[in-house]
Amino acid sequence: MRHAVPPGGEHTKVQTFEPRAKAAPCPHLMWRDLRGQHKVKLTMPSTLLGSASGVSVVITDTTVSRLHAEIELREDGVWIRDLGSRNGTFVEGVLVSRARVADGSKVKLGVTELTVVYDGEQQPPELWPEESFGPLVGRTPVMRALFAYLSNIAKADSPVFIQGETGTGKELVAQAIHEASPRADKPFVIVDCAALPENLIESELFGHAKGAFTGAITARTGAIEAADGGTVFLDEIGDLPMSVQPRLLRALESGTIRRVGETSRRKVNVRFLSATHRDLRTMVNAGDFREDLYFRLAVLPVSVPPLREHLDDVPLLVERFLPRGVVASPEIVAQLTKRPWLGNVRALRNFVHRAAVMGAQVALSLSDTAGEGVPVASASNSAQFPAFSPSPSLPPPAPGSLPGVADFDPAIFDADFKRFRESWGDTGEREYVRRLLARHARNVSNAARAAGVDRTYLYRLIRKHLL
Ligand SMILES: Nc1ncnc2c1ncn2[C@@H]1O[C@H](COP(=O)(O)OP(=O)(O)OP(=O)(O)O)[C@@H](O)[C@H]1O
C-alpha cells in the first residue's frame, strides 16, 4: 500500500492526507538551519513544517513557529499555506497566507530560507475499486482515493483526526472507519463537544460518581468508558474547552479515565476518532488548543474534500438520498452538479429530501435562500426543471417563511420518519435560529440564553446553516 500506516500505538510524525486524482509533482525542499544543511523529498500530498518535534519537516530555528506552514502537492503544483505563524511565511519576499510556489522559488519561514525544486512526478494515489465504502458513496477519483486510505487506516489502532468543512461527511467517515475496523462489533459512541456546556462536558466524557456535584444523584458512565472495546468519536474537538484538554490528553496517553468525583482511574480500551471543521493547527499557534493534544489526536489525519471538489459525485449522491422508486430528471441532476454547495453534502441531501416530498420547484426556492450559492433556477424559470418524479411540484413559499402544513404534498407524512425529520428538522432548525438571531440583533450570548442552549452550540448551528 502506498499510504503507509504507522503501526498501532505510539506515534509517528503527523502528515496530512488529502487525496488527489492525478499525479502531482514530487519536489525537494532544501534549507540550512542550526542543525546544518537539509534536503527532503516531499512525497505526501501535504507536509507540516515547523519547529515542533511532531511535524514532518522540523526546522531548528527559534523564529519558526512550532506549526508554521503546510506544503500541499496539488495537480497544479506546490502550494504553501501559513498556519497563523508568529513571523509569517514569505514566497520570493512576499508575505503570503497561501500561495503557489514555482520551481526554484525561495520560501522564508522566520529567518530560514528554503528552496523548492520540482523534480519528477509522484505516483497517483491508490483508488478504491468500488463506488462506496461502508455508508459513504463516491465514484470520483478523489473520493475513491479517500476510501482506499480509509480502508487502510481502519485496520490500525491509532487515533484518527478528520478535518473538513461543515457537512462534508466527517461523521460518516468516522462511522465508516469504525465499521471497517476490528472493533466493528463493539460500541461506536459519539460526543459532540460543541453541544455541551463546559461544566457538563467532563462528566459526559469521563462519567461521574454519585454526589460528585449538585444534581449528580446517581453515578454515570462517561462516553469513553461506554465505548470500551470500541470507538469513541469526538465531534467538533476544536470546541473542547481548554480546561478539559489535559484530562483528555491523559486518557489518550494512559488508556485510563477517572470519573468526576472519583480518585481511582479505570482502564479503558478505546480507539479515538475526532473531527472538526476548524484548523486545529492555527488554533495551536493561537494558543487555543494544546499542541501535545493535537499531536496525540492527529496521528492519522484525514481531510474530507468539500463537495465542490467532487461535483461529479452529485448524481450518485442524489440517487442515494432519493426514496426508493423515485428518480431525478437528468436535467435537474445536471443543474445540481453545477452548484457550489456551500453547505456540502448535507445541503444536497436536504435539497433532495425536500424536492422528493414537495417537488423540485419549492426545494429550489428554499435552497436558494439557504446560502447554496448562485441559484440554478429561480421560481420563475424552475418550471423548466421537471421535478423529481413522481412527486408533484408545489408553489414556492413566501420568501423567508416556512411552508405551512397545507402546502405540503401529503406524501411527506407517509415518508420514512427519519427522512422527514432529517430534511424538515434542518429546515425548521434553520428558521428557528434565523428568527432567534434577528430577535436578539445577532447577539449570540443573549440569543443562546433566551433559547436555553449553550453559546458554542448556537455558534455551531449558525455555521451549519450559514446564517
Ligand atoms: N460520501 C457520502 N455518501 C453518502 N452520504 C454522505 C456522504 N457525505 C456526507 N453524507 C451525508 O451528508 C450529511 C452530512 O454528513 P455529516 O453529518 O457526516 O457531515 P459533517 O462533516 O460531520 O458535518 P458537521 O461539520 O456539521 O458536523 C449526512 O446525512 C451524511 O449521511
Automatic annotation (TrEMBL):
Annotated coiled-coil segments of the chain: none
Protein name as it appears in the record: Sigma 54-interacting transcriptional regulator
Top-level taxonomic group: Bacteria
Stretches assigned to the Sigma-54 factor interaction domain: 136-357
PROSITE patterns named in the record: FHA_DOMAIN (PS50006), SIGMA54_INTERACT_1 (PS00675), SIGMA54_INTERACT_2 (PS00676), SIGMA54_INTERACT_4 (PS50045)
FHA domain boundaries: 47-96
Database matches in Gene3D superfamilies: 1.10.8.60, 2.60.200.20, Homeodomain-like (1.10.10.60), P-loop containing nucleotide triphosphate hydrolases (3.40.50.300)
Swiss-Prot/TrEMBL keywords: ATP-binding, DNA-binding, Nucleotide-binding
SMART domains: AAA (SM00382), FHA (SM00240)
